[in-house]
Give the backbone structure.
Amino acid sequence: MELTNLLRLARKWAWFFILAALLSGGSIYLYTKSLPVRYRSQAIISVGGYLEATNPNFREIRTGYDLVQSYQALATTRRILQGVIDAGYPLTIEELEEAVSSRVVGGTSMIVLTVTHTNRDIVQGIADELVNQLILNSPSTLNPEEQEQFDQANAEIQRMQRLQDQLETRLNEINAQLDTITMGTVETTPEELTQLAGTRNLLIDQLNQNTLAIATLANTISEMRARTNTLQIIDTASPPSTIRADVLNATIIGVMAGLALAFGVVGAVEYLDNTIKNAEDVIRVTGLEVIGKITIFNPRRLWRRQSPMDMLIVEKEPQSGAAEAYRAMRTRLLYKMEAAPGARTYLITSATPAEGKSVTAANLAVSMAMANLNVLLIDADLRRPKLHEFFGLPNDFGLTSLLETDPVDVLDNPVDPDLGIEAPASLQNTHIPGLRLITTGPPPSNPAELLGSYAMHRWFNVFEQAVDVDVIIFDTPPINRAADCMVLATLTEGGVVMVMRAGKTRPDPAYQAAMQLRQINLKVLGVVLNAVKSKAEPVTTGSPVASVRPAPSVEAETLPWRGALPGLSEALGRQSGRHKPAVILPADTSVDRPRAAADSEARLSRLKRNTLLLYIEDYEEPIAVNVRRRITLGRYTTGLGASEHIDLEPYGAFEAGVSRVHVAIERRRGQFYLEDLNSVNGTWLDGDQVEAGQQIPLRSGQLIQLGNLRLRVYCLTPAERPDETLETPAEELEGDED
C-alpha cells in the first residue's frame, strides 16, 4: 500500500484509532489501578548435595541438572500445597496455586520458589513451609534404619573421639618421661627405659587405628548426607517485599494493543469495502464524467431528527460548500444542454435506492430558480415519492391526476401556453419564487406504462413549449429497479444525470445502470457523487467549468464561475484603478452594476498564491484555478494525476476541425510548466507547434493558444507580485470607482 493511501486511511479513520487507543489503554489503566498491593517472598533450594563436596564428580552434577525440572513441577502439586494448608495457613488450594510459582535458575540445579499474596503476614511462612514440604516429600529424609545407622555412627565417632583424647594424653605423659630420662634429670634402669618406649609405640599404634576408624565413620556419614537425590536449602524465605502494578507500562501496552486491533479492523473493512468513494472510482467503473461532488449535509446535526425541508441546503444554508456545489453543478448542466426554443429537460436518477437522487433533484431545482429561471420540478418516482415532503406540499393531486386529462381540455392554447396563468391544479407553487412542483399524486398500478403513455407525451410538449418554463427536472426511480427513467428519457430526449452515494453505491449496480443508459443511446450528462466527506477548504466540486455568458433567459444573478478558492487576497484587489474584474450579466439586466462588480471582485479576492488566472478571448470573467501539483485543460478528465481539470468544450475549443486538445500545467516550486499531452490538431504557445511531452516554462501574462482559443495566463506566485504584473483584460464597468 502506498504512503498516500496510508495517510488517507489514517486521516479517514483517525477517530476510530483514537477511540480504540483510549478504550484499550483506559481499560488497562483502570484495571491495573484497581489491583490491590501484593507482597512477595522467595526461597532458594538446590537439588543434590554436590555443592558441599570438595571434589564433586560429573555424575552427581548431571543428576542434579536432570532432577531440577521434576522438583520444580513437584513444588506446585496439590500434595505439596495441601501439606502447606495442613501446616495451618488458611488458604484454599486454588488460592495457593495462584500465589505460588517456581522457576529454575538458568544453568544450575537451583529452584527459586516465590509466594505472592495480598496478606503480608503469611507470605514468608508459606515460602518456608513450601520448602519444608518439598524436603519431606523427597529422599532427603532418612528412613528409620538409615537414621539408626546414622545415629550409631555419630555415637561411635563421639566415643572414639573421647578415646582419642585419652590416648593422646597418655602419649604425652610417656613422651615427657622419656625426655627427662634422656636429659639425665632422672636416673632409670635400662629395663624401665625399654618398657616406656614399648608403651609409647603401643599408644601411637592405637592412636593411628582410632583415627582411621573415625575417618571411616565420618566418610560413611558424609556419604549418607551427600546423596545425589536430595534437597538442600540455599536461601531461606526472604522478608516480604511490596509489589505494585506497573500502571504506565501496562497502559502503554494497552494503547498499542488497541491501535493494533483497530488497524486490523480498518484493514479488513477497507479490504471488504468495494463501494465507490471518489470521482476516480466513478470514472473507472462507469466511464461517465463526474459533474458534481456534494458534501454531507449538516454533519453536526445528524444526531437530531431533521425536517424534510432541511434537506433544501441551497435555501437553508446558501453559503455552505454543498450549496456552492449545487450551484456549480447547475452551471455545468446549463451549458451541457444547449439553449433551444423549448425548455431544458433533465432527468435525475440513480442506480439503486437511497442514493440521494430526490434531494439532488430538489436542490438543483432550487438553485436554478434562484438564478431567475422558471423551473418545473416533476416527481416521476411514482413508487416512492419524496419531493412533496421537501417542500411541505400535499400529494393529493399530481402527475397521475394530470395524465388522466388531455392538455386541450385544461388549457386554451396547448402550443404556447402560460402555465403561470392557466396552470392546472396539479401544478403547485412552492415557497421558492420561480419553482413549481408536480407531485406524483395517487399511486398508479402501472407506473412505467403511464409515464410512456401518449398523455405523458402530450403534457411534456405543453411543459416544454410553455413560455414561463425554462427548465424541467424529472425525479425518476432507480434504473436498476424500474424502467421509468429510460422510458421518460426516450420520450423527452432530455439529459440524464445519475446520482451515486459515496461509500454506499457498489460497482456492479453502477456499471449495470451505466450500461443500460448506453445501450439505448440516451443523452447521459454525467454523475453526481453524493455524501462526499467535506474538507478544510470548500472547493467547487466536479470537473471545473468557468463562467461564461449566460443564456438569454437568465437574469439578475451572475452564474457561478470557476469556484473561488479561499485564500489569496491581494490578487485583484490592489490594482491601481486601471481595470476591475467584470461581472457577467446580460445587457438588459436590472441589477445594480457597481454592486455586482464589487461582489465579483470580492469573490476574486479570495484567491490564493499558486493560482492561475486564465482569460479566454471573448469571455470577460476569468477561469481561476489553484494548482496544487498539476491541472489539465481539454475535453473530459483522463485520470492523469491532475488535481483539477478544466473542460474547454463550452468555449468552442473543438470547433473547426479540432478533434482533441489536452495539455497540462504543472507547478514546480512556484514555477509553472506547460506540457503537451499529445494534442491533435491543436496548436498552442503563440501558435507554434510543440512536440508531444515537451515542457515549456510558463510566465505571467503569456499568451497561449489551445485549439481555437486564445488565452492570457497570469501566474499568481510568490516570485511574481500580482499587483505589479497582473493586467485584467476586462472592461471597466460604469460607476465602478476605486
